[in-house]
Specification:
The complex is a heterodimer of chains A (about 120) and B (about 110). With about 120 residues, chain A is an all-beta fold. Chain A has no helices and eleven strands. Chain A has strands spanning about 5, 10, 20-25, 35-40, 45-50, 55-60, 70-75, 80-85, 90-100, 110, 115-120. In chain A, the strands form two sheets. In chain A, strands 2, 4, 5, 6, 9, 10 and 11 form a seven-stranded mixed beta sheet that branches. In chain A, a hairpin with a 4-residue loop joins strand 7 and strand 8 (about 80-85). Chain B has about 110 residues and is mainly β. Chain B is about 5% helix and about 40% strand. Chain B has one helix and nine strands. Chain B has one helix at about 30, and strands at about 10, 20-25, 35-40, 45-50, 65-70, 70-75, 85-90, 100, 105-110. In chain B, strands 1, 3, 4, 7, 8 and 9 form a six-stranded mixed beta sheet that branches. In chain B, about 35% of the residues are buried.
C-alpha cells in the first residue's frame, strides 16, 4: 500500500528556519516524482515544486523559486521541504504528493498535510 | 498561468445529481484533455477522483464522472450522498515545463 506520512504541525517565529518531511512507503521511491503543494488558510492548492529522488532532479514553480528548498534522501525514502527564514506569509498547510510527471500532473497519492504557523 | 475557474459552491439533496464546471483556455483544458479532479473533505487531504477527463482510480465510486467540451471540463456527481460534501478542485496539464494549475475550488453542500 502506497503511503506518504508527513511530519507534525510546527509553530515558528519569523526569521526561524524549518524543515518538514514526507516519508514514502509501498512503492519504489526513486522511480517517481514527489512534490509539495501549498494551501493557504481558506484558499486553493498551488504546486511549489517537485523532485525525482532517483537523480535529485528538482523543479520549482516560479512563485516559489528561491523561497524554499526541496530535497530527498534515498536511504530513508523521505522528501523534505525547507525554509531558511520563515515569514508570516508562509503560514499554511503543506501537502506532499506523488505526481506522474514533473509538471505535477496526476497526483495519485497525498500525505496527510503539515500545518505550519509562523507568528511572533 | 491563471487558475482555472470554478463556481464557488453548488448544492443538492441526497440522491440528486450536481455538476461542477471548470473553465480554462485553449492552452490548457482545450488542448490536452488531461484534466484531473480532486476531492478534499473538510480537514482532510485532497484525493484524486478523476484523471484524464473521465477515468476513475480504483475504489472511486462510479457515480463520479467527468467530461470536457471545448475549454470547459465538468465533474458530475450522481446520486449525491452526505459523504460527498467536500471541496472539489480541477486541474489541467499545460506543458511539460509548466506546473499544472488548479481550479479555484467548488464547495459541494448536501442539503
Amino acid at each position: 500500500e502506497v503511503q506518504l506520512v508527513q511530519s507534525g504541525a510546527e509553530v515558528k517565529k519569523p526569521g526561524e528556519s524549518l524543515k518538514i518531511s514526507c516519508k514514502a512507503s509501498g512503492y519504489s521511491f526513486t522511480g517517481y516524482w514527489i512534490g509539495w503543494v501549498r494551501q493557504m488558510p481558506g484558499k486553493g492548492l498551488e504546486w511549489m515544486g517537485v523532485i525525482y529522488p532517483g537523480d535529485s532532479d528538482t523543479t520549482y514553480s516560479p512563485s516559489f523559486q528561491g523561497q524554499v528548498t526541496i530535497s530527498a534522501d534515498k536511504s530513508s525514502n523521505t522528501a523534505y521541504l525547507q525554509w531558511s527564514s520563515l515569514r508570516a506569509s508562509d503560514s499554511a498547510m503543506y501537502y506532499c504528493a506523488r505526481p506522474s510527471l514533473r509538471s505535477g500532473y496526476l497526483a495519485d497519492y497525498w500525505g496527510q498535510g503539515t500545518l505550519v504557523t509562523v507568528s511572533s | 498561468q491563471s487558475a482555472l475557474t470554478q463556481p464557488p459552491s453548488v448544492s443538492g439533496s441526497p440522491g440528486q445529481s450536481v455538476t461542477i464546471s471548470c473553465t480554462g483556455t485553449s492552452s490548457d483544458v482545450g488542448s490536452y484533455h488531461r484534466v484531473s479532479w480532486y476531492q478534499q473533505p473538510p480537514g482532510a487531504a485532497p484525493k484524486l477522483i478523476i484523471y484524464e477527463v473521465n477515468n476513475r482510480p480504483s475504489g472511486v465510486p462510479f457515480r463520479f464522472s467527468g467530461s470536457v467540451s471545448g475549454n470547459t471540463a465538468s465533474l458530475t456527481i450522481s446520486g449525491l450522498r452526505a459523504e460527498d460534501e467536500a471541496d472539489y478542485y480541477c486541474s489541467s496539464y499545460i506543458s511539460s515545463s509548466t506546473f499544472e494549475v488548479f481550479g479555484t475550488g467548488t464547495k459541494v453542500t448536501v442539503l
